[in-house]
TrEMBL record:
Spans through the membrane: none
Polar residues bias: start-end ranges: 83-94
Source organism (scientific name): Trichogramma kaykai
PROSITE patterns: FYRC, FYRN
UniProt subcellular location: Nucleus
Domain of life, per lineage: Eukaryota
Main location class: nucleus
Name recorded for this polypeptide: Transforming growth factor beta regulator 1
Lineage: Eukaryota, Metazoa, Ecdysozoa, Arthropoda, Hexapoda
Annotated Gene Ontology cellular component terms: nucleus
Keywords: Nucleus
InterPro entries associated with the record: FYrich_C, FYrich_N, TBRG1
Start and end residues of each stretch annotated as Disordered: 83-128
PANTHER family: TRANSFORMING GROWTH FACTOR BETA REGULATED GENE 1, TRANSFORMING GROWTH FACTOR BETA REGULATOR 1
Length: 340
């Protein structure tokens, strides 16, 4: 009897040990799961931190490029002088005269005074004062990016768009046509040329060639479309009045993509270095009042194809002249013919 009781007691204690070990392993398993869960959360937090660092690094690179371009605008690009290197051939005991490595010197032929005078007459004199593209100062944000909209007189730019590098028709030697470019300009209305209207100019993706659109705020359903900015501007002038079709269109100026300030911002956009035909333009920042004479704002104020006031001033003068000529009496005209 006592033996049976001892065996049952031994089996109970053995089962109790197994139970205690199972509880211990369960606790260890819970700890491992909790530890793994914390590691997963920590890993995701580190991944987010790495992504934020990469974004801040990209922003800092863009800021550095903008600062370098501003520094080049203020100070100009400094070209390092060409240095001629000298090498010696042979041992130190047997010195050999140094050899200059560089461009060979050209033999200069002496010219007689008569030849110099003839060449001076043939070569035209270059103007010392060349027209510079003056960039106006615009407000920038903390990262050095322009704050939109950019107001430049009658021209207001709302978006610079994206530069397309893989399509040659979206740029020329001196102009870039970015997709998504949007600007507005005040000009004569389509319905009444005496009234000022606001036109929205857009550059859209037209496939092989860009699509230029000019939309009037008085007629939003009928945009004026062209494959070039000049064609689009000519359609606008013809739609306002048939007499305006004789004016030379200036589509790039009307859109604003040829304005030095806007052109400089488009040229600073990413992807312009990959353009095959475009030649990088040089700009100067407006520092003094003397630069006002070369600014495009003064030229637009006197251009009837771009300025509303200049358009009315031009056509009021041309319309008054034939009316005055008709009011001159025939006797005075006959008298002027006798005097001549």
């Amino acid at each position: 009897m006592s033996n049976a009781y001892g065996t049952t007691n031994y089996s109970g204690t053995y089962r109790n040990k197994d139970y205690q070990e199972n509880l211990l392993y369960k606790k260890k398993l819970k700890r491992l799961k909790k530890w793994i869960k914390n590691l997963v959360f920590e890993n995701s937090a580190l991944c987010d931190q790495v992504a934020d660092m990469q974004n801040s690094l990209a922003v800092s690179k863009e800021e550095r490029l903008m600062l370098v371009k501003k520094l080049n605008l203020f100070q100009g690009e400094i070209e390092p002088p060409t240095l001629t290197t000298k090498t010696q051939i042979g041992n130190s005991n047997s010195p050999v005269p140094p050899i200059e490595i560089g461009t060979p010197k050209k033999t200069v032929k002496k010219r007689t005074p008569t030849e110099v005078s003839v060449e001076a007459k043939q070569k035209p004199k270059k103007n010392s004062k060349t027209a510079r593209k003056v960039v106006q100062l615009i407000p920038l944000d903390v990262h050095g990016r322009p704050i939109f909209p950019i107001s430049l007189g009658d021209l207001t730019v709302f978006s610079l768009g994206d530069v397309v590098a893989d399509k040659p028709a979206y740029h020329t030697e001196d102009l870039i046509f970015p997709i998504g470019y949007c600007s507005t300009r005040a000009y004569a209305s389509l319905k009444d040329a005496r009234v000022k209207s606001l036109y929205t100019c857009k550059i859209l993706d037209g496939g092989f060639k860009p699509r230029f659109e000019i939309v009037s705020d008085s007629d939003l359903d009928q945009p004026l479309v062209g494959s070039t900015p000049d064609e689009c501007h000519w359609r606008l002038l013809s739609a306002i009045s048939p007499s305006l079709s004789s004016i030379t269109p200036k589509g790039a100026d009307f859109f604003g993509i040829s304005h030095p300030t806007i052109q400089n911002l488009i040229q600073s956009s990413p992807g312009t270095r990959k353009l095959a035909n475009y030649k990088q333009q040089k700009f100067a920042i407006k520092k003094s009042l003397s630069d006002r004479d070369t600014s495009p704002a003064t030229e637009e104020e006197n251009d009837p194809s771009l300025d509303f006031t200049a358009l009315h001033r031009h056509y009021s003068l041309t319309s008054v002249y034939p009316a005055i000529k008709q009011e001159i009496p025939n006797d005075i005209i006959h008298f002027q013919g006798l005097l001549s």
